[in-house]
Specification:
single chain, 546 residues, alpha/beta, FAD/NAD(P)-binding domain, 2 domains, five-stranded parallel β-sheet, 17% strand, globular, binds flavin-adenine dinucleotide, binds 3-acetylpyridine adenine dinucleotide
Amino acid sequence: MQGERPERDQRAAGSEDIDVLIVGAGFAGLYMLYKLRELGFRAQVVEAGSDVGGTWYWNRYPGARCDIPSIEYSYSFSPELERDWRWTERYAAQPEILAYLGHVADRFDLRRDIRFDTRVMAADWDDAAGHWAVTLDDGSTQPTPHLILATGALSAPKTPDLAGLDKFRGDILHTALWRDDVAIDGKRVAVFGTGSSGIQAIPQLAARAAQLTVFQRTPNFAVPAGNHPLTDEDRATAARTLRADREAARHSPLGFFSAPRPGAAKAQDPAARTQRFEEQWGAGTAGMLLAYEDLLFDEESNGFAAQFIRDKIAGIVADPDKRRAITPTGYPLGSRRMCSEIGFYDAMARDDVTLVDVRENPVIDMTADSIVTQSGGYPADVIVFATGFDACVGAIKSIDIRGRAGLSLRDDWDNGPRAYLGLAIAGFPNLFTITGPGSPSVLSNVVISIEQHVDWIAQCLAALRARGGAIIEAEADAEQAWMAHTDEVAQQTLFPRADSWYKGRTRDGREVFMPYVGGVGTYRVRCDEVAAAGYAGFSIRERTSI
Ligand code: FAD
Ligand code: N01
C-alpha cells in the first residue's frame, strides 16, 4: 500500500506506519498477522491481554478444554507446525492449547508486531484521508488504512445483575476471567450457570470445595467427552490421513473431519437406532450430532437422540428431584450448543452438591456470605459466574466504531447485527470482522472457519493493493440479502426452536439468528464466488477519487 498512507502530521506521536491494524491475538489475530506479513503488508496487532491466546489466555477455569479433537481444532496452514506439535490428549486442556498458541507466536516470530496490555477503545473512519483513526486505552491514536476485528465471538464475558450482589463479601470469579489467587479448596462455592463452561468446571470445583451449590437456569444436553491421552501410534495414524481430513473438513457442514452419518433417525427401527447412538456415545459432542444427518433438521429424529441422552442422565442421577431439574426438555438437542462433560452428572449426583433451579426458586437477595433465594439462603465463600458471553457482537460493540458520516456501529447493531458474509459491514469501509455475525464460525470447528475468513480477507487486501490501495465497502443490498439468507437457512433447521446465545435481539425485540448455518463448505464456495466475481456485493472506490 505504498503511497497511499496518510500524512505524518495526521498521526499521533509514537504511532507506527502500518497498512493493517488487527484487534485481538487469539487464533484469528495470530493467523491474520502471519498471513498479512507473508503477503508483504505491515500489520500490527493490539491485544488487551498480556499474552497471545485469546479464549485460551482468558478461560483458565479448572476443567477448561476443547471439545473438538485437538488434531482438528488446530491450524492447518503449516504442515511443519502440524508435524512438530505433539498433542498429548484427544481434547487438550487449556494450558496445552495456550502453550500451542504461544509456540505458534514464537515459531513465526509474531510477538514483535503485537502490542499487549492495550485495549482498542474507538475507531473513526476518516473518509477524506481514507483511513481509520484507532484510539487505544493509553489515549494514543493509530491511523491505519485497514482495520480487522479479530476480537472473538465469545470474548465479552457476561455477569448477571443479581439482586444484592453488592452485599456479598466473598470472592467473585467469572470462568472467562479466572484468577488462581482465589482459594477454592475447602471453601463453600456457588456456581451460576450450567453451559459448557459450568459443566466443565463443576466436577473439578466439587472435588475441591467443602460444598458446592449450583444455580441452574436452563439444563443443557451434555455428552461424555471421550477424552484420552494420545499415543505415538494415535498421532501417526492421524498424520497418515491428515491432509485429506483437513481438506474434507474445509468442505464439510461443520468443519469436522467426520461427516454426519447418512440416514434419518426416525426411519430406523428402535434397536438399530439405539445401537447407532451407543456407537456415537462417548465420541464427544460431535459424535452425537453426527449420528444421523437429519438430527438438526427433523424434530422427530432429534427427539429420539434427545431421549437417548435423557435416559443416560437417568442412569447416573438417582435423586428424582435433581434428575428432574437437570434433565433438558422443551428444546431440540443441538439447538443450544452441546456440552462436553467429564464427570458432570456424577458430580451433580453427589450429596455435597446442591442444585438450585432458579426458575422455580429465584435469587432474591444476598448477604455478606450467602445467596438468598425465595425458599431460603445458601452459604457461600466464593461465587463463580459461568454465565457466558455477550456472544458474537459483545466485543465488537464494546469498541466505539464510527463509520462513514459518523455512523455508530454500536447503535446500528442495537437494531440487530448485520454483516455481509459475516465479513464486512455497509457504512464501514476497509473494516473486516473475523467470525462475525453471518459467518458459520461458532457453529463449526472455529479454527477451520477462522483460516477461511483470514485467507479470504488477505486475498481481498492483496487485490485492493493491486488497485493502488482502493477502498472497499459492503453494499447495503448485498448485506441485507445475506442476512435474509442467513435467517432463511436457519429457519430450515431446528436451531431457532431454542432460546440460545446464537440469537441476538433488535431494539424492538425481534430475534436475529446470528451464525450462518448453511455449512462451512457452502459458505466457502459462496465467498470464493464473490471474490471471483470481482468482489460482488462490495463497492470498490479507487483511492485517486478521494
Ligand atoms: P478469541 O480467542 O476470543 O480472541 C480475541 C482476542 O481479542 C482476545 O484475546 C481479546 O482480549 C481481544 N480483544 C477483544 N476486544 C479487544 C479490544 N477492544 N482491544 C484489544 N483486544 C481485544 N471453539 C471450537 O471450535 N472448539 C472448541 O472446542 C472450543 N472450545 C472453547 C472453549 C471455551 C472455554 C470457549 C470460551 C470457547 C471455545 N471455543 C471453541 C470458541 C473459541 O472462542 C474459538 O475456537 C477461538 O478460540 C476464537 O478465536 P478468536 O481469535 O476468534 O477469538
Ligand atoms: O456460556 P453459556 P458458557 N442464574 O452462555 C446461565 C464455548 N465453550 O461460557 O441458558 C443462573 O453457554 C445460562 O442460563 P440460560 C461454547 O461455544 C466451549 O458456558 O441463559 N444461571 C447458562 O446456563 C459455549 O456454548 C467449551 O438460561 C444463569 C450459563 O449461565 C460458549 O463458549 C467450554 C444466569 C451460560 O452458559 C459459551 O459457554 C466452554 C443467572 N442469572 C465454552 N445467567 C467446550 O467445552 C446466565 N445463566 C469446548
